[in-house]
Amino acid sequence: MLARAGDDARRCRALVGIAAGQRLTSAAEAGYAGLDAAEPIAQRLHLTRERARIAYLRDALYFARGDLGACAREHERALALAKETNDQLLQAHALSGLADVLYANGRMASARSACGDCVDLCERHGDVAAIRALRVRAVALDLRAALPALDAALTGK
Predict the structure, then answer these.
(1) For residues 95 and 153, what is the distance between their CA atoms, to the nearest angstrom?
(2) CA-CA-CA-CA dihedral for 91, 94, 98, 100, to nearest 10
(3) What is the DSSP string of the chain?
(4) pLDDT digit of tens for each residue in the chain (157 aa)?
(5) Cα–Cα distance between 53 and 39 in angstroms, integer?
(6) For residue 90, what are the contacts with CB-CB under 8 A and spacing of at least 6?
(7) Under 8 Å CB-to-CB from 57, ≥6 apart: which residues?
(8) Does the domain at residues 8-155 carry the CATH identifier 1.25.40.10?
(9) Contact 31, 69 (CB under 8 A)
(10) Would you tell me the crossing angle of helices 108-125 and 88-104 to the nearest 10 degrees?
C-alpha cells in the first residue's frame, strides 16, 4: 500500500489509515510507529487535517494504555488542529475523545460539556449515528454526576 501511495501527501494519508486500523486491532506499537512516520510529513507539507487525525489517533492509543495525561494533551492538540481546518467532523472526534478522558479523570461536568459540544457539532454535520451514541453517553454522564446526591439522599448524609 505504501509503495503505491505515490507522493508524500498520499504516503502520509496511507500511514495514518494504517495506524487507524492498527489502533482497532490493539497493535499500539505499530500504530505509534505509523503516526511517528506520518507526522513529519504532515508538518512539512502543512497537512493540518492529517495532523489533527494523527493527534486524535495518538490520543486514542494513549487512552488504551491508560496514560490519561498524554491522552488529554493529544486531544487538546487534535481539537486545536481540527478548529484550524474548520472541519466539524474532526472537531467532533476530538471532543468525543476529550469527553472520554475528562470522564476517566472524574471531571463529570467538563466531560458532559465536551460531550454536549460534540452532539451539537454532529447535529450540524448530520451524523445521526454519532448523535444517538453521544446522547446515550451524555445521559450516562448526567446520571453518574447525580449519583453522589442520590446516595446522600438515600443515606441521609
Answers:
(1) 33
(2) 120
(3) --TT--SHHHHHHHHHHHHHHHHHTT-HHHHHHHHHHHHHHHHHTT-HHHHHHHHHHHHHHHHHHT-HHHHHHHHHHHHHHHHHHT-HHHHHHHHHHHHHHHHHTT-HHHHHHHHHHHHHHHHHHT-HHHHHHHHHHHHHHHHHHHHHHHHHHHHT-
(4) 555 657 899 999 999 999 988 877 777 888 899 999 999 999 999 999 999 999 999 988 898 888 999 999 999 999 999 999 998 888 888 888 888 888 888 887 888 888 778 877 777 776 655 555 555 555 555 545 545 554 555 566 6
(5) 10
(6) 49, 52, 53, 56, 78, 81, 82
(7) 16, 19, 20, 23, 31, 35
(8) yes
(9) no
(10) 160
Q: Integer distance in angstroms from the first to the last C-alpha of the chain?
A: 62
What is the residue extent of each domain of the chain? 8-155
**Quick one: how far is CA 100 from the chain centroid?**
8
101 within 8 A of 68, measured Cβ to Cβ:
yes
Cα separation, 48 vs 81, whole angstroms: 6
Cα–Cα distance measured from residue 18 to residue 90, given in angstroms and rounded to the nearest whole number: 18
- Residue position matching grid coordinates 471531571: 107
